[in-house]
Amino acid sequence: MDEYFGSYAVVAALFAVGLVVVGGALFANRMLRPSRPTPEKLTTYECGVDPVGDGWAQSQVRYYVFTYLYVVFAVDAVFLFPWATIFAAPGFGMTTLVEMFVFLGFIALGILYAWRKRVLAWT
């Protein structure tokens, strides 16, 4: 039982060493950096443009929908790579092919749904 908990002790010790190293690096950075705050340095940085007006800006929901669609396609691509590697293995050909077409069918249904709801229209 001691060697079971001993492996956890090693992990905890490595975690503590990691915390000390990161904390020490942050502390050394804070001690060694110059600190000369000026009003120009303390203003909000907005892509090189001086901030004008108040901080409230309204964004449209469609931008988030495009982000979600991108995530769906990225997940789709992540699943295609392992499928392509196992497809050539003996005994997995037809099963893998059917499973991937079921997966692509679900993706196609999601795209069709988004297209029918006019989510994919930019204007």
TrEMBL record:
Q: Which Pfam families match?
A: Oxidored_q4 (PF00507)
Q: Where are the transmembrane segments?
A: 6-28, 63-86, 92-115
Q: What is its EC number?
A: 7.1.1.-
Q: What GO cellular component entries does it have? A: NADH dehydrogenase complex; plasma membrane
Q: Determine if Transport is one of this entry's keywords.
A: yes
Q: What is this protein called?
A: NADH-quinone oxidoreductase subunit
As for family, the record states: Belongs to the complex I subunit 3 family.
**Which GO molecular-function terms appear in the entry?**
NADH dehydrogenase (ubiquinone) activity; quinone binding
| Subcellular locations according to the entry | Cell membrane; Membrane
Name the major location: membrane
Q: What does this protein do?
A: NDH-1 shuttles electrons from NADH, via FMN and iron-sulfur (Fe-S) centers, to quinones in the respiratory chain.
The enzyme's main class, written as a single word, is: translocase
Q: According to Swiss-Prot or TrEMBL, what is its membrane topology?
A: Multi-pass membrane protein
The domain of life for this entry's organism is Bacteria
> Which organism does this sequence originate in?
Planobispora takensis
The record's catalysed reaction(s) read: a quinone + NADH + 5 H(+)(in) = a quinol + NAD(+) + 4 H(+)(out)
User: What PANTHER family does the record point to?
Assistant: NADH-UBIQUINONE OXIDOREDUCTASE CHAIN 3 (PTHR11058:SF9)
This protein's UniProt keywords: Membrane, NAD, Quinone, Transmembrane, Transmembrane helix, Transport
